[in-house]
UniProtKB/TrEMBL annotation:
Its EC number is 1.17.4.2. It comes from Trichococcus shcherbakoviae subsp. psychrophilus. This is Anaerobic ribonucleoside-triphosphate reductase. Residues 609-734 form the Glycine radical domain. InterPro entries: ATP-cone_dom (IPR005144), Form_AcTrfase_GR_CS (IPR019777), Gly_radical (IPR001150), NrdD (IPR012833). It comes from the Bacteria. Residues 24-119 form the ATP-cone domain. NCBIfam families: NrdD, PRK09263.1. One of its GO terms (biological process) is DNA replication.
Amino acid sequence: MASLPTDFLNESTNLQVADAEVNIQVLKADGRVVPFHAKKIYKAIKKAERFLSEQNEAAADYDVDAVVALVVDKLIASETESVSTDDIHDQVEATLAEMGNLPLAEAYNTYKLTKKVKKLQQQDIELRIQSLMNADQSIVNENANKDSRVFNTIRDLTAGVAAKAIGLRMLPKHVSNAHMKGDIHYHDLDYQPYSPMTNCVLIDFQNMLREGFKIGNAEVDSPRSVNTATAQMAQIFANVASSQYGGCSADRVDEVLAPYARLNYEKHLETAKDWVEGEAKQIAYAEEKTRKDIYDAMQSLEYEINTLYTSNGQTPFTTLGFGLGTDWFAREIQKAVLQVRIKGLGKERRTAIFPKLIFALKKGTNLETQDPNYDIKQLAITCATKRMYPDVLMYDKIVELTGSFKTPMGCRSFLQGWKDENGNEVNSGRMNLGVVTLNIPRIALESEGNPEAFWNIFEERLAICKDALVYRVERTKEATPTNAPILYQHGAFGKRLGETDNVDELFKDKRATVSLGYIGLYEAATVFYGGDWETNPEAKAFTLDIVKKMKEKTDAWGNQYGYHFSVYSTPSESLTDRFCSMDTEKFGIISDITDKEYYTNSFHYDVRKNPNPFEKIAFEMEYPQYCSGGFIHYCEYPNLQQNPKALETVWDFAYDKVGYLGTNTPIDHCLECGFEGDFNPTERGFQCPECGNTDPQTCDVVKRTCGYLGNPQIRPMVKGRHKEISARVKHLHADCKSEQ
């Protein structure tokens, strides 16, 4: 392995004390029992020294190795088999005082107390609410889809900070501690475990529309037109989103809605028989009227989704998957979805943020020129160059990676192939129970470039993640069907339960997934191999080993507990900043790791290297076989509106290599001067490069903030995400200039 970067640590240790010489177990404050490590005392003293210097005071001259050795001698002399962390802290403080270094002893005590206070503050409801009222950016900008200026969102955020504080108290102590320290991230603490809510879902629209459902006091019958069907879909989306905290998706929406479009056609055909002569003209009349109905229905669905607010204070995170239907009705639905998106919202033709569109590519259906739906693929390409969506799913690769074809739940969470007791494949109606993400870069930093230490810490952290995920499952099972009737009783989760049934009927036997997320493979490898490791086969193998070992663990947990534990490439919207900021505080500024002010999402190629799409796909294609519970690949492009064939070339290249591919291309639009392209990032938002406009009301700025698009002018991003997008924009501008 390559040597560590020279600026990896602000200090290094020459400790001669071997941990193996100290046969003592340490009792942690969260209840865990861990082996004693002398180096942790060393690091704590050095942090206290830095803490003292920040107060413009200096420690008396001392030998830190001698202090640690003396503390260890005292612990050994005590002949105890276990010691608490507080006892160790007392010994360190006393030893520093005995050696005449009272300022450092006091700083050490203050530093440790400060850490305790910070943890307690995270569990203090009043302080959390006060932070919200003071517009703490880590709270108000945590979710790029929530506009923190409006009343219902403020109310939800207020409830959320209280729920987080309570949730941290509810979690197992070692899980709560690991989350607060930044070793792991227990996602969506503002909802779960305070409430036993589920995460994301592939809604069973086919069942709900066919069999009917109930919302509130209204019993809703099966629709008799495509227009009514899409109106019902919008209501279902809103109610499902209000009953959970994650994304909600519709799979094969063109095929699901086709029977209702046929009802429109049959009605129009009957009308034509009364007023139009000749069968051919009657059919043409019915088709034209039905085509208009379909377009109106899909346009209404898009507008309804973008004007909805859920009880969570946000537009529902919605996804439409389509592209496989080949009959006339399914084709017209596909075309209408794309045409509506291309047209844009309102008189200003703004880019719609929701629903996320995902187009399925399949050999024999739409991939090649001879395929029956190839013309719709061309329309999808045009749409992607203008509106960034649709993303594309490669049919054969998705089946290979996940065991069956389906649209992801939310932006990237994939169900795995599953069959019911009768051997029928089931995708829609299944769900995810939540995510816990592991801070991979921190493990690498703590290992100080020692592979054995890395894997040991990795194992310890995975054990905490397992406990956190098992807790998520057990807490979710405490719900009753009456807590979320639309999910459990009226069809969104497929099988309909009675009021007293056990919700676990819909989770067990691996019907539901629960996800182990990760972040920062790039930064972890940088610790061991330097910042330009992507072409180093040994470094690449190291990162693959990380996700491979995670999959081995989750597979074993799944067999043990009967739920599908999946490895998930976290869409780390605010986590890119949270983990990096906490590690900067812990380890300092480290080149190519913390100095960027963000961590790289999942397995992605470092955006600063500006790889071309083919290089990026080839580099990333090996990872999803180990993280099939959630993944997506993005490619960066300059403006493609005049060169759609370039995008098709990438799609075709990717077809047998990756399962899920998104497009990043400049689509910002200035409503003042008409500029279309990429706005310049600023400290406070984005600026039109043509006229200098920065007004959010006249700047239609759309960026990928994670798996979904977002408008960072209206809903500001966290610092780390802004830095990452700034890097991407910089390289895209360079590409555009080189092409000119």
